[in-house]
């Protein structure tokens, strides 16, 4: 099997606190948090690794939080390459109210990388694509936000590196990064519906997805929460595929999109190019992630969920 | 001048996030936090150091958060001895709502130390009291909570070490630690009114303070928020001293109690034993801490505030 290589330029240490009742303005005594190497590309690698696909997770790490991230990633068993940077790795803090309240999340923005550090990150990708005795790469995945001051060209350059190596590229990011990756010819983009509207300025999912394909993207997978997923394919301009469960699942949606990307990456790495099949898998893995308490894991029920999917072609021409 | 030695068995990395509007249940994007070596004994040492008193801050540190604490403490210039422990140093997270909401605090409980680590902490105290060429110790201060599973005897053993070295001991803690330190003959206890009621089960400040003195404490300083401070002295059983400003100050009360302990420690280290004088200084430094944005600092207005104090003897016999 060919390897799934993921790139996470702005990872985070995820600290999850379980607080028995959150009172704004009060002082709370809390147990030590769950600490986990986080970031969308790491979640993608974790899920694919869990399902037996060979992976390599590439990420930056810096400072004391970076050491925590490295230690946790090492413990997880997910093969990885970490690029040392001067800036401290950011944290993401989740406050889970165990007395029945809502979960509040505080994501640090991340700090700028130096030009030489961006180069080192690109070099790590090139090395991974060259293989050097490791299983050959089957797909390259770029995931997540970029730290402030990132080169606009970062995700497009990943797409070019993948294509130069003869493999497809998936990009899952937000904002102008989506536009740049589409223009570079990304094989799959996977925004959620909010990100898609925000990046394109369009008012309908269809118009937004076709806009990205017009720029150069080959396939756009859109996750739309409980509505399931839609797939737009440059080779099928007359409509789109839609996949959803008969009943939406309740659970933890954090990381569901990353599980969908993991499914798409696994499919591409296996040589599957049928958009309908990719959509089925991505929707099922994404739903199976909702059943798990933490991002980066999916429920073993993913096969059963895939059989329940309602997949339809919507002709729109 | 003789040195103030502080002991912090359960320090924390204080992370302060400035959040422009906190919405429970939402995801927030936040700048990197202010990160600071925290814990009550470190705050005491910081304040005394700021005012030119020789200090030594002794604390435990472990894991990646412990490295962050060590790096920040080194940068602060406060002389310190850190005892390495296996358990990761805890964090304390403050979420400051810059859109005018309240500040919410989440204090991790800390993790147990191994018996050999408790011994190493005690050894570091003995070494500090012996001096070995450093300025001689003038007072020993034990501050803050104890990690779970701590020996009940820890603060009492600090009091005995101080007395064996011929110097006074101050203990500022909560719960059963107050009772234990009183029984061991602590020279000054400094609970706030909430801690005093909780530890003694009494309903009046006077009854609670005299109960501690009955156990063996020599002086009990009670911080009572905007009411100022009260001082109960074993040698003056007919009443107590009270000190307060004509008008309460508004500001940040975090660390105000620690500044009061720093004042009391500085006074004892200078050989001042008059309870009224110790109370004046402690109340003034504590009030000057309220004017500062972060714990561990006091406003240069502390002398002016001391002159404004209303100090009265309340005869209660």
TrEMBL record, chains A, B:
GO annotation, cellular component aspect: cytosol
Keyword list, A-Z: ATP-binding, Kinase, Nucleotide-binding, Transferase
UniProt-listed Enzyme Commission number(s): 2.7.1.-
SUPFAM superfamilies for this protein: Ribokinase-like
Domain Carbohydrate kinase PfkB, first and last residues per copy: 14-297
GO MF annotations, alphabetized: ATP binding; phosphofructokinase activity
Top EC class of this enzyme: transferase
Family of the protein in this entry: Belongs to the carbohydrate kinase PfkB family.
Protein name: Hexose kinase
Protein source organism: Arthrobacter cavernae
């Amino acid at each position: 099997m060919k390897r799934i290589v993921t790139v996470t330029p702005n990872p985070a240490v995820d600290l999850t606190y379980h607080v028995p009742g959150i009172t704004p303005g009060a002082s709370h005594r809390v147990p030590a948090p769950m600490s986990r190497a986080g970031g969308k590309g790491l979640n993608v690698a974790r899920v694919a690794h869990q399902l037996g696909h060979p992976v390599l997770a590439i990420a930056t790490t810096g400072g004391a939080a970076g050491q925590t991230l490295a230690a946790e990633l090492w413990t997880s068993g997910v093969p990885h390459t970490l690029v040392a940077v001067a800036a401290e790795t950011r944290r993401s803090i989740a406050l889970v109210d165990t007395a029945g309240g809502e979960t509040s999340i505080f994501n640090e923005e991340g700090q700028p990388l130096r030009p030489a550090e961006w180069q080192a990150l690109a070099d790590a990708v090139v090395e991974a694509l060259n293989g050097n005795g490791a299983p050959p790469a089957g797909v390259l995945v770029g995931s997540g936000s970029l730290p402030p001051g990132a080169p606009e060209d970062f995700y497009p350059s990943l797409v070019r590196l993948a294509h130069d190596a003869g493999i497809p590229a998936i990009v899952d990011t937000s904002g102008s990064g989506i536009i740049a990756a589409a223009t570079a010819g990304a094989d799959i983009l996977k925004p959620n519906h909010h990100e898609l509207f925000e990046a394109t300025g369009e008012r309908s999912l269809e118009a937004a997805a076709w806009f990205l394909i017009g720029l150069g993207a080959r396939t756009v997978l859109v996750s739309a929460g409980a509505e399931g997923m839609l797939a737009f394919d440059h080779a099928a301009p007359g409509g789109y595929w839609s996949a959803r469960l008969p009943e939406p699942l309740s659970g933890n949606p954090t990381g569901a999109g990353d599980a969908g990307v993991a499914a798409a990456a696994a499919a591409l790495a296996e040589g599957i190019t049928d958009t309908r099949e990719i959509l089925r898998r991505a929707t099922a893995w994404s739903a199976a992630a909702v059943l798990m308490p933490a991002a980066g894991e999916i429920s073993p029920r993913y096969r059963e969920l895939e059989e329940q999917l309602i997949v339809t072609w919507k002709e729109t021409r």
